Amino acid sequence: MFESLLEPFSYSFMIRSFLISIFVGISLPMIGSFVINRNLGFMGDAIAHASLPVLVIGAVLGASVFLSAIPAAIIIAVTLSYIISRSTVGEDTAIGIVFSTFFAVGIILLKRYNLATTLNIEDILFGQILGVSRGDVISTIILSLITISTILIFYKQILYLSFDPIGAQVTGLKTKLYDNLFLVVLSLAVIGALQSVGIILVISMLITPAAAAKLIIKNFQSAILVSSIFGILASISGLYLSFYLNLPSGPAMALSSSAIFVICWLFRRSVRLI
After folding, report:
1. Cα(167)–Cα(154) distance, rounded to whole angstroms?
2. Domain 11-266: which topology?
3. What confidence score (pLDDT) does residue 199 get?
4. Which residues, in sequence order, are CB contacts of 91 under 8 Å at separation 6+?
5. Span 185-189, mean pLDDT?
6. Is 183 helix (H, G, I), strand (E, B) or coil?
7. For the chain, percent of residues with pLDDT exceeding 70
8. Which residues, 6 or more positions from 254, have their beta carbon under 8 angstroms from its beta carbon?
């Protein structure tokens, strides 16, 4: 059994996959805890879909995912923030319109510039962590570190804004600034995870580990830590399933994450920790 656990590490592509899994498993659930608290789950899904046209344009220009990710995150965050703040049709409706429009534009650009050899649509939608390059690993790690460090540096401000936005505004906190900062960091985290779980399933790694932690942990700060642990477990177990059962990596990680949530839900009353 011990040999079976170590066997994947004899392959360089699996080592790269494990590195990405660990960082994505930490960063997505960490920011996902705030997303759940602010009821922005749909926003995370929208950002994943809306990132497609910017990534396609980056591929056309010959830019890497990392170089495309930062402008993509800023463009998506500012666009969503502007439309939501000025929309009269409701936040969810506005987000739905934005992400469907951006995603449609991305698909059209993908076909228009015939990027099938550069960007595989199936990999974009469902992820292909087993095929990542060294450059992809570096990009994902940098984006994850930016996400983690930003959350840690501005933890108090983002926490205050998440639990009491009106009180934060009354006390003079620059709520608009930190709202936009949060959206930019959320965009970076989501785009950084597209290589592993893809556009469609990124919401699973963003929301499910954080939701599972919330079921059994009362303290918010502790829940963030536990959610990241769940994220790492889901990512790595999904990788093992993908390796040994020849399953798509993204869906395998999503199923592992869902399994953790189900276990926490079943034992939520008997295992309610501080």
Report:
1. 17
2. ABC transporter involved in vitamin B12 uptake, BtuC (1.10.3470)
3. 77
4. 84
5. 87
6. helix
7. 90
8. 197, 201, 204, 205, 208, 238
